[in-house]
Design brief:
Strand order of the largest sheet: 6-11-10-7-8-9
Low-confidence stretches: none
Shape: elongated
Radius of gyration: 30 Å
Oligomer: single chain
Helix content: 40-55%
Number of helices: 18
Largest sheet: 6 strands, mixed
Distance between the termini: 22 Å
């Protein structure tokens, strides 16, 4: 009888072989769910929420977040895989497949009487050797140019969306990251805004070197399109102010009340007049220029009227994050008061225009000379298409950023996994102890990636991998999913991120080792002690 049973008769316990079987079956189950999604030829999953909302995706991270996983072990693996996505932006499906396959291969040895501790020692040795192989396979070190980034983005995007759409989004994603990159500073992907428009088709998506606001001007007489614009970004209230504490005013006569209203109006109008005076000052020097005001706070109808009569285009209640981006996009310095504002605080934009789509309005700030904040405008005919594109673009941006941060890439198409498997099999033969079985387990498990890629492409997995192993003796070869033949991945432009592969190997080996060493599963929380 289990010791925990003596302490708590209501506890649920799974011991030794039973506990291991529970863990391995959970890992296999999760692996079988995600297996068909891997690679550019993977299939889609349709997720239906309790409210009947539909999501169609093949992104492992989205699936693991959205699926309701009840099994504790499967939930643990899912959390590890989604943490991988948070760190590197990719590799979720690969991590799940690798953990499942390591446990599946380990199960064969455990059935023959090998102790899990021996296997985990071998797994650790295998992991260290695999990481050394990964280091040796790094290419283009310190020479990550635009062509390499395009290949990395294309490889990532093709695993999420159709080939045609992936190729269209590749340049958009790469140029977006290169636009916000500043020498000597970390890349902040928050400076790339993603704006969705349910309009036209997916292939009409484009990169806007500037900003897109999801609202328009609030006055019918304001210009809808201006060129060569000065942009004032401000955080100034141009409407009646309400006091922050409860207060009341008492007046003896109606004249006093009128006087108070006029004074209050005059206070607001003064601010507007200062903006108009600045506009006249800068436009006097450049008669072809126009003026745009983008305000974080409100602008009341009277103030809008005054601005419209001067031909000023004004947007109110802009989002705070957009004000940060606006400063980087067009060079405007956000001001909190119009009292001492000068022309130096103004930004420049070649074109500012309003686009009306049904009842929604969008304002585009484009043609900024040195935009360090950009917008990816995603267009699609349906909500599902836009969501799928948004997830794909997010992963594409992370892939390009990773390549720039690592300053190197890894040949893709299963090239690393095949090379590592070959070397680990040779290493296993040189280890005299039983730990060789752990190394062998990892060597066999790594082949799940090329096998699954081949199977999803409709190829004979065993034959394709056997040919790869045979031909990849002296150089890293990946699998061409169209012909099923081995290919030089680097020449074919199939490149993966170094940090994603490193994280996948580390996570999978550590979690698989921990699960193998579990010899008792207890459900004995505080709730089971009650009553």
């Amino acid at each position: 009888m289990s010791a925990i049973k003596a302490l708590n008769p209501k506890a649920e316990v799974a011991r030794a072989a039973q506990a291991l079987a529970v863990n391995i079956s959970a890992a296999k189950g999760l692996q079988d769910v995600l297996k068909s999604n891997l690679g550019p030829k993977g299939t889609m999953k349709m997720l239906v929420s309790g409210a009947g909302e539909i999501k169609i995706t093949k992104d492992g991270n989205v699936l693991l977040h959205e699926m309701q996983i009840q099994h504790p072990t499967a939930s643990l693996i899912a959390r590890v895989a989604t943490a991988q996505d948070d760190v590197t932006g990719d590799g979720t499906t690969s991590t799940v497949l690798l953990i499942g396959e390591i446990l599946k291969q380990a199960d064969i040895h455990i059935d023959e009487g090998v102790h899990p501790r021996v296997l985990t020692e071998g797994l650790e040795k295998g992991k260290q050797r695999a990481l050394e192989i990964l280091e040796s396979m790094r290419t283009r070190q310190g020479n990550v140019d635009r062509e390499v980034l395009l290949s990395v983005a294309r490889t990532s995007l093709r695993t999420k969306v159709s080939t045609e759409l992936a190729d269209h989004l590749t340049e958009i994603v790469t140029d977006a990251v290169l636009a916000i990159q500043q020498p000597g500073q970390p890349i902040d992907l928050h400076m790339v805004e993603m704006m969705e428009m349910m309009h036209k088709t997916e292939n009409d998506s484009r990169l806007v070197r500037g900003l897109v606001f999801d609202h328009g001007a609030r006055h019918p007489d304001m210009p809808k399109r201006v060129e060569n614009a000065y942009v004032l970004a401000c955080n100034v209230s141009m409407e009646y102010e309400k006091s922050e504490v409860n207060s009341s005013f008492f007046y003896k006569t109606a004249e006093d009340r009128e006087k108070l209203v006029r004074a209050e109006r005059e206070f607001t109008d003064d601010k507007v007049r200062k903006v108009i005076a600045l506009k006249r000052e800068v436009c006097a020097k450049d008669p072809k220029a126009s003026f745009v005001v983008i305000n974080l706070k409100g602008i009341d109808p009277f103030s809008l009227d005054m601005l419209a009569s001067e031909g000023i285009m004004a947007l109110r209640r802009a989002k705070r994050r957009n004000m940060e981006r606006l400063a980087l996009a067009c060079g405007a310095t956000p001001v909190n008061s119009v009292d001492d504002v000068t022309a130096d605080a103004l930004g420049r934009a070649g074109l500012v225009y309003e686009h009306v789509l049904g009842e929604e309005k969008f304002t585009f700030v484009e043609q900024c000379s040195s935009a360090r904040s950009v917008t990816i405008l995603l267009k699609g005919s349906s909500k599902y298409a836009l969501l799928q594109m948004k997830d794909a673009v997010h992963d594409g941006l992370r892939a390009v950023k990773n390549a720039l941060d690592d300053q190197c890439v890894i040949p893709g198409g299963g090239a690393f996994e095949v090379a590592a498997s070959r070397v680990l099999h040779e290493l296993a033969l040189s280890i005299p102890s039983k730990a060789r079985l752990g190394v062998q387990t990892l060597a066999d498990a790594l082949l799940i990636i090329p096998k699954t890629l081949a199977a999803n492409a409709g190829l004979d997995a065993q034959e394709a991998v056997a040919r790869l192993l045979q031909e990849a003796q002296h150089r890293p070869l990946g699998l061409d999913l169209t012909s099923g033949e081995p290919m030089l991945a680097e020449q074919a432009g199939v490149l993966d991120n170094y940090c994603v592969k490193r994280q996948t190997i580390n996570s999978a080996a550590v979690i698989a080792s921990n699960l193998l060493l579990v010899d008792e599963i207890m459900r004995a929380g505080l709730s089971s002690l009650k009553g």
